[in-house]
Amino acid sequence: MVERDVDYVLRTVEERDIRFIRLWFTDVLGFLKSFAITPVELEAAFDEGMGFDGSAIEGFARARESDMLARPDPSTFQILPWRPDARGVARMFCDIMTPEGEPFAGDPRAVLRRTVARAREMGFSFYLGPELEYFYFKDSAGTEGLDAGGYFDLTPLDMASDLRKRTVLYLEQMGISVESVHHEVAPSQHEIVLRDDEALTMADNVMTARLAVKEVAHEAGIYATFMPKPIQGAWGSGMHTHMALYEGDTNAFADPEDELGLSKVGKAFIAGILQHAGEMTPVLNQWVNSYKRLVPGYEAPVYVCWARRNRSALLRIPGTDRRDDVRVEARSPDPACNPYLAFAVLLGAGLHGVAENATLPPEATEDIHSMTPAERRAAQIESLPEDLFEAVNAMERSDLVREILGEHVFQYVIRNKRAEWAAYRAYVSPWEIERSLPIL
Amino acid sequence: MARVLIVTDRSDDLLGLARGLEHAGHSVRFGSLTEVAALRPTLAGDPPKPPSVGDAHVAIVDAAKDLSRGRDACRAYRFAEIEVPLLAIVDPDSVDAVGPDWEIDDFVTDAERTGELLARLRLAIGSQVLDSAGTIRLGDLTVDPESYQVRMKGKPLDLTYKEFQLLLYLARRPSRVFSRHQLLQEVWGQDFYGGTRTVDVHVRRLRAKFGVEHESMIVTIRNVGYRLDAERSR
Fold it and tell me: Which chain B residues have a beta carbon less than 8 Å from that of A90?
């Protein structure tokens, strides 16, 4: 089967006069990496993988074990629509291998593959539909937006709507189905909602979509950013992620007989994520800036709870017209995460809940924000970590996250995030100067 | 090879040419010059119903015996925005009359010499429609199982291997309804892990690549499955 996949790619490259094939992979922090090969090297790349120096990649290897092989996944072959039609450029996502031919432990795609395989052992396949929020700015030096528009605004001068249209066209040409695309709440903020797909494909799709959004902005001479909270006092950018487990053809979260419409599996999955919510936060919200989004007042989650309607809950069960099709929406991830690792921890924690038959806590009520901390403690409602420091400390104690990510990635994330926090902590900010200098 | 439409009022005279083209592997169909010329755009009155070239890859208008009717036919085709190359046969004594208002891609002066016309055809068509024998054609969609090429209105679509296999399966049996289970078994095979949702997401990816105009060619039959319908475009 794989050989026919390979054959198909080789034929397409020839027929379509493809001159370069970009080999894509993702570093541990979620940055897309790429190097190009020519068609004559392609067959060898499929057979043996293409060698590269892994020590140059964040979270990959130390210098002494720097030889890595990138082996392209033929099922991800796509011609890049933003490159010229003639003498085109195509891309494939790669799995990273050691020189011995083993999957490399630092490859985020391998982490997600492993977790998906675990789901499969339990009889499940995992489907996700993320909503990517982002801002268009004049350039990367500041936060000057394109408009003063609000939610769903459409004005004749709305240049952004052309950009969004173009982005959707690119994505669809690459087989990434877009459910909707619109202006978001904050000025110059936009959202692309991807239709759900199987977990590994979806992580690839998120990487592609982030690039497509930036590519289209770049063509127009502006800048697009997935930074979680670029503007103080305005809504931040999240990546609400709709999740569903399927057991064969049936939605494993659904039970039309249940009062909530939730099956036992669905309840345990939610409970599993809630139990491990704090410790997985450095993966879902990996930057110092991520925690400036997770504050009350902007529909971003702050408390570890679930609800049907309340949009500030960590997990939400959106209403549907089909009782046999239930999704759970994770509202804390932000679009600057590494989607492979983020989907892996969500799935891993949910499956852990299912395996342990975890008990679903009561649904959060509307007044959760008006409760005092003491009342919340009494109701056993925890808060998400308030900053990266607290989050990393929680993760470091987590056996589950260590198991899901594997020792290599786990240790790297801890080290890298501690270093980020140390640099941030030592920084004297304009806020302090403004507040403290005049009075102290 | 290419399907050639020759628009003429003297098809008997051009049988030799037609045979030459067929000998080279093309197929030839004749159309009426008088009818097409009558559909030229005029300044007054309602615009005429634009002429069509059907499924031809190239149209050749015979202007050798009737220059003005030939020009009218060429302009009628351009007005109809046909998407295939347009060639004309012009009498050597009338070549002077050919100008940009004809809006043709190329012309030949001697219909007796098949060699020249074949060369002009090759140049006009390029490599774009040299389909192999097994090519399936459904409305604007062509699927060539030999070269793995899929085109929508002549524009190549980039499919992954699985998407290609699924489309090929449906295209070989147009208008028949298949359940998700059937498609899963036929396209993915017995040992594939995962449910029929896989079929749904692949259909979704195909529809995305078809684009808004053609996405409805893959019809969802509620509670059953899918079928491919060539007529369903907008």
Answer: 158
Within this chain, domains A2-97 and A113-425 share the same CATH topology: no
Q: What average pLDDT does this structure show over B56-67?
A: 89
Architecture in CATH for domain B136-228: Orthogonal Bundle (1.10)
pLDDT of B123 > 90? The answer is no
- Looking at residue A254, what is its pLDDT? 94
Phi and psi of A415, rounded to 5°?
Answer: -60, -50
Asked: is A113-425 a CATH 3.30.590.10 domain? The reply is: yes
Q: Which residues of A touch B147 (CB under 8 A)?
A: 11, 15
Alpha-carbon dihedral angle through residues A309, A313, A316, A321, given to the nearest 10 degrees? 10
Residue A155: what pLDDT? 53
Sorted by where each begins, the domain ranges of chain A are 2-97, 113-425
Which amino acid, A15?
E
pLDDT digits (tens, 9 = 90+) for A14-45: 888 899 999 999 999 999 999 999 999 999 99
Listed as ranges, residues in chain A with pLDDT below 50 are: 1, 150-152, 156
| Cβ separation B194–A125 shorter than 8 A | yes
Amino acid (1-letter code) at residue B22: E
Q: Where are the beta strands (DSSP E) in B19-124?
A: 27-32, 58-62, 86-89, 106-108
Residue B234: which pLDDT band, with cuts at 50, 70 and 90?
A: low
> Cβ of A11 and B201 within 8 Å?
no
> CATH assignment of B3-125, given 3.40.50.620, 3.30.110.40, 1.10.10.10, 3.40.50.2300?
3.40.50.2300
What per-residue confidence (pLDDT) applies to A119? 96
Q: Min CA distance, A313 vs chain B (Å)? A: 29
CATH 3.10.20.70 fits A2-97, yes or no: yes
CA dist A207 and A87 (Å) reads: 24
Task: Please provide residue B184's backbone torsions phi and psi, each rounded to the nearest 5 degrees.
Answer: -60, -45
